[in-house]
Structure to design on (120 residues):
Protein backbone atom coordinates (compact mmCIF):
# COMPACT_ATOMS: atom_id res chain seq x y z
CA UNK A 1 0.00 0.00 0.00
CA UNK A 2 2.83 2.38 0.83
CA UNK A 3 4.45 1.64 -2.52
CA UNK A 4 1.26 2.61 -4.35
CA UNK A 5 1.02 5.88 -2.41
CA UNK A 6 4.68 6.64 -3.04
CA UNK A 7 4.22 6.03 -6.77
CA UNK A 8 1.10 8.22 -6.82
CA UNK A 9 2.89 11.08 -5.05
CA UNK A 10 5.81 10.69 -7.44
CA UNK A 11 3.51 11.02 -10.47
CA UNK A 12 1.40 13.87 -9.10
CA UNK A 13 3.69 16.67 -10.41
CA UNK A 14 3.69 15.05 -13.85
CA UNK A 15 -0.10 14.88 -13.90
CA UNK A 16 -0.31 18.50 -12.75
CA UNK A 17 2.09 19.47 -15.53
CA UNK A 18 0.07 17.42 -18.02
CA UNK A 19 -3.17 19.20 -17.18
CA UNK A 20 -1.50 22.61 -17.05
CA UNK A 21 -0.12 22.01 -20.56
CA UNK A 22 -3.56 20.78 -21.64
CA UNK A 23 -5.17 23.98 -20.32
CA UNK A 24 -2.66 26.25 -22.09
CA UNK A 25 -2.93 24.37 -25.38
CA UNK A 26 -6.73 24.40 -25.11
CA UNK A 27 -6.80 28.17 -24.57
CA UNK A 28 -4.55 28.73 -27.59
CA UNK A 29 -6.82 26.40 -29.55
CA UNK A 30 -9.84 28.42 -28.46
CA UNK A 31 -8.16 31.59 -29.70
CA UNK A 32 -7.50 29.89 -33.04
CA UNK A 33 -11.13 28.75 -33.16
CA UNK A 34 -12.42 32.27 -32.55
CA UNK A 35 -10.09 33.78 -35.16
CA UNK A 36 -10.74 31.19 -37.88
CA UNK A 37 -14.00 32.73 -39.19
CA UNK A 38 -12.21 36.10 -39.38
CA UNK A 39 -9.45 34.58 -41.48
CA UNK A 40 -12.03 32.99 -43.77
CA UNK A 41 -13.79 36.37 -44.03
CA UNK A 42 -10.53 38.10 -44.92
CA UNK A 43 -9.71 35.61 -47.66
CA UNK A 44 -13.24 35.24 -49.04
CA UNK A 45 -14.42 38.88 -48.82
CA UNK A 46 -13.32 39.80 -52.36
CA UNK A 47 -15.17 36.75 -53.72
CA UNK A 48 -18.35 36.40 -51.66
CA UNK A 49 -21.12 38.86 -50.83
CA UNK A 50 -22.08 40.17 -47.38
CA UNK A 51 -24.83 37.61 -46.76
CA UNK A 52 -22.56 34.63 -47.34
CA UNK A 53 -19.83 36.14 -45.17
CA UNK A 54 -22.35 36.76 -42.40
CA UNK A 55 -23.49 33.13 -42.56
CA UNK A 56 -19.89 31.92 -42.47
CA UNK A 57 -19.27 34.12 -39.45
CA UNK A 58 -22.33 32.91 -37.54
CA UNK A 59 -22.27 29.23 -38.41
CA UNK A 60 -18.49 29.02 -38.59
CA UNK A 61 -17.98 29.89 -34.95
CA UNK A 62 -20.50 27.22 -33.97
CA UNK A 63 -18.99 24.56 -36.22
CA UNK A 64 -15.40 25.43 -35.33
CA UNK A 65 -16.38 25.49 -31.66
CA UNK A 66 -17.65 21.92 -31.91
CA UNK A 67 -14.45 20.89 -33.66
CA UNK A 68 -12.44 22.65 -30.94
CA UNK A 69 -14.37 20.80 -28.23
CA UNK A 70 -13.60 17.47 -29.88
CA UNK A 71 -9.93 18.43 -30.19
CA UNK A 72 -9.77 19.42 -26.51
CA UNK A 73 -11.18 16.06 -25.44
CA UNK A 74 -8.83 14.23 -27.80
CA UNK A 75 -5.86 16.29 -26.64
CA UNK A 76 -6.53 15.40 -23.02
CA UNK A 77 -6.44 11.69 -23.81
CA UNK A 78 -3.41 12.13 -26.03
CA UNK A 79 -1.43 13.94 -23.32
CA UNK A 80 -2.57 11.59 -20.55
CA UNK A 81 -1.52 8.52 -22.54
CA UNK A 82 1.75 10.17 -23.47
CA UNK A 83 2.37 10.71 -19.76
CA UNK A 84 1.95 6.98 -19.16
CA UNK A 85 4.40 6.25 -21.99
CA UNK A 86 6.91 8.86 -20.81
CA UNK A 87 6.48 11.05 -23.90
CA UNK A 88 4.66 14.02 -22.38
CA UNK A 89 7.26 16.66 -23.15
CA UNK A 90 7.90 15.54 -26.75
CA UNK A 91 4.20 15.33 -27.62
CA UNK A 92 3.40 18.59 -25.84
CA UNK A 93 6.15 20.36 -27.77
CA UNK A 94 4.93 18.85 -31.03
CA UNK A 95 1.37 20.08 -30.45
CA UNK A 96 2.59 23.48 -29.24
CA UNK A 97 4.67 23.93 -32.39
CA UNK A 98 1.65 23.02 -34.50
CA UNK A 99 -0.41 25.70 -32.77
CA UNK A 100 2.38 28.27 -33.14
CA UNK A 101 2.58 27.47 -36.85
CA UNK A 102 -1.19 27.99 -37.22
CA UNK A 103 -1.01 31.31 -35.36
CA UNK A 104 1.88 32.46 -37.57
CA UNK A 105 -0.10 31.54 -40.69
CA UNK A 106 -3.04 33.55 -39.33
CA UNK A 107 -0.86 36.61 -38.78
CA UNK A 108 0.76 36.20 -42.19
CA UNK A 109 -2.65 36.02 -43.87
CA UNK A 110 -3.84 39.07 -41.97
CA UNK A 111 -0.72 40.96 -42.96
CA UNK A 112 -0.96 39.78 -46.56
CA UNK A 113 -4.62 40.74 -46.97
CA UNK A 114 -4.26 44.02 -45.06
CA UNK A 115 -6.55 43.26 -42.15
CA UNK A 116 -5.94 45.02 -38.85
CA UNK A 117 -4.16 42.83 -36.34
CA UNK A 118 -6.25 43.49 -33.20
CA UNK A 119 -9.32 41.79 -34.65
CA UNK A 120 -12.79 42.81 -35.62
Amino acid sequence: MKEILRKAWHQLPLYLACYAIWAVLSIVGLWITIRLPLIIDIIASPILNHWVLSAIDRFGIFLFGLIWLGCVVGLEGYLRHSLEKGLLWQRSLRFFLLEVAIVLVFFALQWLFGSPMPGR
The chain has a mean pLDDT of 85.
